[in-house]
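Sanity check

After download, print the first record. It should look like this:
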Amino acid sequence: MIALEYGHLSYGEKCIMNDFSITIPESGITALRGPSGCGKTTLLRVLAGLQPLERGSVVGVTVRETAFLFQENRLLPWRTVEQHITDVLPKERRDEADRWLRMVELEGDRKSYPGALSGGMCRRLALARCLALGGKLYLLDEPFAGVDPQRTERIMLRLKSLGTPVLLVSHEEVIDQLADHIVCLDGPPLSVK
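Expected structure tokens:
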């Protein structure tokens, strides 16, 4: 079981979480829904160990067992598409780069640099790099921003086939249709509707 138990977090006077608890399904894709600013990204950051809690704990997963996709692509302009993937793979797994590029439909762009890619292609590259990291839980913040709905649907189906739980924040309708679970949130402070 992966869960956040009784999480409490404030930014100054603003309470983001007040004894907030949530259990993450152990399989499939879970989509987080809620208004901007309710705490969805903060929840992902807490689960990834990037945002410390004032009280409470994350159970069932460690920092090293999560792979996090930030809202920003954070690509290196001097590294090729393929190098972005091999850079995060251990030496013995570098031959997996093609697998991750195929997953996001970038296999034909392996020698390109980020400056030559569209916004949607850069987003898919950032996603492939995150997926290549592997782990016990994928935490994806707006993974399909700028990606067309048909491609999003194909990639979502491939994500499901990984067998690793995925928790994602997204506003695309196709995500609602393909997610295995939808959690509706409100806040702050963060709460499940």
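If your output differs, re-run the checksum step. Summary of this record's structure: Strands lie at 2-11, 14-24, 29-33, 55-59, 66-69, 137-141, 166-169, 181-186, 191-192.
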